[in-house]
Amino acid sequence: VDAIMPLPFGVAMVAPVIYTFGTQAQKDRFLPKIRSGEEWWCQGYSEPGAGSDLASLKTTAVRDGDHYVINGQKTWTTLAQHADWGFFLCRTDPNAKKQQEGISFILVDMTTPGIEVRPIITLDGGHEVNEVWLTDVRVPVENLVGKENEGWTYTKFLLAHERSVIAGVARS
Predict the structure, then answer these.
(1) I need a surface site. Which of 13, 82, 104, 110 has the fewest CB within 10 A?
(2) What is the Cα–Cα distance from 117 to 101, expressed in whole angstroms?
(3) Which residue of the set 101, 128, 148, 162 is catalytic?
C-alpha cells in the first residue's frame, strides 16, 4: 500500500535528455541507474509566479570555478521527498535578450547541502508535491547538460516526451 509507483521523471523525461544532449560521462553515470530504478528523479521547473510562464523563472545558477551556486525556489515538485536526483532549470544569464535564453538544464543531487524539501499537503491530506528551496547549493559544472544558456532547447525536447507520457499514447 505504501509502495510508490514508478514515475516518468527518470525513464521518460530526463533519460532521453541525457541520452540526446548529455556527455558520455553523464550517460555512463546516470542512464544505468535510471533504467534499473536504482535512482529516483524529480523535476525542478515550476516556481511561484512562473507556473504557466516557465521562461520567467528566477532560480539562478552562478558559475564559481568548477561549480554552479544555485539559489531559488521550485514548487509543485512531485515526490521530491523521495528523489535521489533532480533536473532543474536555472537562469545562468540574467541579461539574456529573451527570457527563453539564458536558462540552463542542471542535474542536482538532492542530498546536496542547501536543499530543503518542504511538503505541500493537498486537500485530501496527501503529500505528493513539495516546495524545494535551494540556498547556496554547490553543483559541479559537469552536471550541466548540453551547453550553458541552451536549457530551453532541452526543455522543449523533454516536454514533448512528458506530454506523450501524460497522454497515455501507448495505453490508448
Answers:
(1) 82
(2) 28
(3) 162
Q: Quote the pTM value.
A: 0.89
Nearest to 88 by CA among 106, 115, 70: 106
Q: Is 162 a catalytic residue?
A: yes
E-strand ranges in the chain read: 41-44, 60-64, 67-74, 85-91, 103-109, 115-120, 129-140, 144-145
Distance, in Å, from the CA atom of 88 to the CA atom of 61, rounded to the nearest integer, reads 10
Per-residue burial over 4-20, b if 16 or more Cβ lie within 10 Å, else e, is eeebbbbbbbbbbbbee
